[in-house]
Amino acid sequence: MRALVCHRIADDFSGVEVRDVPLPEPGPDEVRVRVRAASVNFPDLLLTQGKYQLKLEPPFTPGMDFSGVVDKMGEGAEGPLRLGHDVAGGSRFGAFAEFVVVPADALQKKPPAMGFAEAAAYPAAYLTAYVALVRRANLQPGETLLVHGASGGVGLAAVDVGKLLGATVIATGASDEKLDLVVDYGADYAINVMQGFRDKVKTLTGGRGADVIFDPVGGDVFDESVRCIAFGGRLLVIGFTSGRIATVATNMPLIKGFSVVGVRAGEYGRQFPDKGRENVETIWDWAREGKTHPRVHASFQLEDALDAFAMLRDRKVVGKVVVTP
């Protein structure tokens, strides 16, 4: 089969190319899926650069989220899935290929109303948003949610989930054009961070500040967020796409009474398996009920996957980009 293989760690993705590799066989309790679409996440890029917390020795195939058709089932892979079923799911790597093998319980039936591209764009972004806003922040109806990097896949999912939970959503980003799309998508307000955001957030919240801040950016954005969070607020650390890991003087959360909360959606499920299953079931129930709306910005063939990587790296995406083997 064809797969996107990282054969050498490199900052510029030069160590990644499409190669012919052996067709994987499912083991006990595993399922092989013929991939119809796989979405690109920042960890995919970081894996090939050697900058992610999970370190893989080349050669390996990146790719976390995917959708496709059940092609073969391993011994003991029982349950509702059958050959030919349309499914979606996630893995820590391996999805940028014509076929991927995963545990049967890592798959969900694809909602009939959701296309393969949208289903591939869904799992990691919406699971992160759910764990962050529900499990870690306990976001309540009527609270104000400030979402940084709101045009990205995870940020846009947080906007979507925040509105579903009844929050007032303030979106930030560095492009007026992209922020216009985020407002059309459902955000109540949008702020271009190139002119700063602290004072505008304070104005929009009557001087109180945001109750919950969803921050996948880090760096200067985190620093300024500390200045516009409400007393009792929750500042969610999602990632560091700016490249700088910020620090905070501990007198700030003491005086302002806010919490800095780390979010790792996958690790949360591994630490609390029952809650992890509930998290996954909830977001897919939302999808089946049409309550959530993943946005696919662009689609690329497997041979052009590095163009998808570059589009994500260069912040040209509103929502997600997908690769179709």
UniProtKB/TrEMBL annotation:
It comes from the Bacteria. GO terms for molecular function: oxidoreductase activity. Residues 11-323 form the Enoyl reductase (ER) domain. PANTHER family: QUINONE OXIDOREDUCTASE-LIKE PROTEIN 2, SHORT-CHAIN DEHYDROGENASE/REDUCTASE. This is Zinc-binding dehydrogenase family oxidoreductase. It comes from Hyphomonas johnsonii MHS-2.
